[in-house]
Amino acid sequence: ISINGSLSLLHRYCQKLPSDRYTVLAPVFYTHRVDGGFYYLDGEQYKELFLVKISLPINCPIKEDIQGPALPSAKLAKKAAALEVLEKLHKEGELDDHLKPIPQKDIDSDEEDDEKMREKKKNKAGTTRRIMYYRRGRIR
Questions:
Q1: Mean pLDDT over each residue of the chain, to the nearest integer
Q2: C-alpha–C-alpha distance, residues 31 and 24, integer Å
Q3: Tens of pLDDT, residue by residue, the chain (140 residues)
Q4: Rounded to whole angstroms, how far apart are CA atoms 68 and 78?
Q5: What is the pLDDT of residues 57-92, one digit of tens each?
Q6: Which residues share a beta bridge with 30?
Q7: What is the model's pLDDT at position 107?
Q8: Where are the alpha helices (DSSP H) in the chain?
């Protein structure tokens, strides 16, 4: 995987998490600028660097914020932090070897499905005749 595809893979993983309709399934990115002095990175001099922390959704097994390396551009720092998150998710067993999300069962939806099936199987009280909502006879 390259650093360029890390953001899309992170968003794909977050969308596959089990949730209800009120849960936000997007990572939150916090970008911090590191000022004050000159910084040397790979033999080049920079006036400022950027740090990005990523906070994952509440139903993700990784609860702490993950910080990426300090880099000279905010976009690059965001992608590098996303790559760090993907590595941690892979170590946790949330992503397979191709960095695809491993399917999880949604506990709430299974219970709801079972409940709906039980309601369908219940015998309805009363008659099985159809109720006619119109008058019989000829219309003049």
A1: 80
A2: 20
A3: 788 999 999 999 998 888 888 888 899 999 999 876 677 777 778 788 899 999 999 888 899 999 999 888 899 999 999 999 999 999 988 888 877 888 765 444 555 666 666 666 555 555 556 666 666 666 65
A4: 8
A5: 988 889 999 999 988 889 999 999 999 999 999 998
A6: 53
A7: 47
A8: 6-15, 74-92, 107-121
Question: Which residues lie closer than 8 Å to 93 by C-beta, 6 or more apart?
Answer: 102
Question: What's the token pair of residue 124?
Answer: 């309805």
The residue behind tokens 């003049």 is: 140
Residue with tokens 């089990």: 18
* pTM for this entry: 0.68
Q: How far apart are CA 62 and CA 92, in angstroms?
A: 8
Contact of 27 with 54, CB cutoff 8 Å = yes
Q: Quick check: helix, strand or coil at residue 94?
A: coil
User: Which residues contact residue 73 at a Cβ distance below 8 angstroms, ignoring those fewer than 6 apart?
Assistant: 50
Backbone angles phi, psi at 87, to 5 degrees: -65, -45
Which residue in the block uniquely carries the two structure tokens 């309805």? 124
Q: Give the Cα separation of 95 and 98 in Å (integer).
A: 8
